[in-house]
Write a structure and sequence with these properties.
By secondary structure, the protein is mainly α. Helix content is 48%, strand content 4%. The protein has helices spanning 2-11, 14-23, 36-43, 45-52, 56-64, 114-126, 133-139, 144-153, 164-169, and strands at 91-93, 106-108.
């Protein structure tokens, strides 16, 4: 519906608008600046002749010039000290979570996955005598300092249920 309406306005009075545009006076272009160089050459045929004349003396100079170009010798790169040291990270298998295929299978040593982090924080919260910082560091191949920081600053959520009597008081 909108296309038909716009087409009506677009084609309204087309012939009169076209005639009006055609009958307008065309703007005159700005005058060109006469270039002195072209005017001089056009008026003097001997200059034109000098330009196109062949100069044998210059040709002999050109023939005497000989340019020899050679590529630098290609150096074969040996496996020496040019390569950056490639650090092979040791990987360890993760303690698999509940998601199966979506879980991360291998983690570099010194790092843990999110599932493992939540698991170890929960284990430490529930049984801190068994899951000490030293045991967690050995179990997950972490540094003791990092494990202590992790246990100090990250605390898993605790779900608390209030009895029905206290709900009314709140």
């Amino acid at each position: 519906m909108g296309g038909r309406l716009t087409r009506v306005f677009r084609t309204f009075n087309v012939e009169n608008r076209a005639r009006r545009e055609i009958s307008k006076e065309k703007p005159t272009p700005a005058p060109r600046h006469p270039t002195s160089r072209l005017d001089e050459l056009a008026g003097h045929p001997e200059i034109q002749e000098e330009i196109y004349r062949r100069d044998d003396r210059l040709l002999t100079f050109l023939k005497d010039v000989y340019v020899e170009s050679r590529d630098p010798p290609v150096r074969v790169k040996d496996g020496g000290g040019e390569h950056l040291p490639c650090k092979q990270e040791e990987k360890r298998l993760t303690k698999l979570g509940h998601l199966g295929d979506l879980d991360v299978k291998k983690v570099p040593k010194g790092k843990i996955s999110i599932v493992e982090a939540l698991t170890l924080l929960n284990n430490h919260k529930l049984r801190p005598q068994i899951w000490t910082a030293e045991k967690i560091a050995v179990e997950y191949s972490l540094e003791l300092k990092e494990v202590n920081s992790l246990l100090e600053f990250f605390i898993p959520f605790a779900v608390q249920e209030f009895p029905k009597e206290t709900k009314k008081a709140i």
